[in-house]
Amino acid sequence: MSDKIEKSDAEWREHLTPEQHRVMRRHGTEPAFSGALHDHKAPGRYLCAGCGHELFGSGEKFDSGSGWPSFWQPAAPDRVGHLEDRSHGMVRTEVHCSRCGSHLGHVFPDGPRPTGLRYCINSVSLAFEPEEDRG
Ligand code: FE
Fold first, then answer.
1. Is the pTM of this model over 0.90?
2. Among 44, 52, 71, 119, which is least packed by CB within 10 angstroms?
3. Confidence category of residue 46, pLDDT binned at 50, 70, 90
């Protein structure tokens, strides 16, 4: 799973909606409570909307009340990458897909046990795959 995916900006624009492109390739943020998945509770897997890389599972999702899908850990540690983000006058930890580099959201140290982490992820960066579709 170390096969990185690289696309030109034109290719990303073809592949993504304008809102996905703004969030995933320009480090944007969708408005809170606007996304399709913040209150989504069905069992299944959350994949990268850019490349299909498995990022999170429904078993690690929790209701943070923030208006964004929130997870206390990724499906595996190497599924996501982290970068220091000093934009907007804050020091935050940015989270991106480790395969295609698409921006997902940020991780904060105020999540539930056992990790104490809150991966705060944009809905538009995720594609949900319900459990019954697993083959
Ligand atoms: Fe990806």
1. yes
2. 52
3. very high
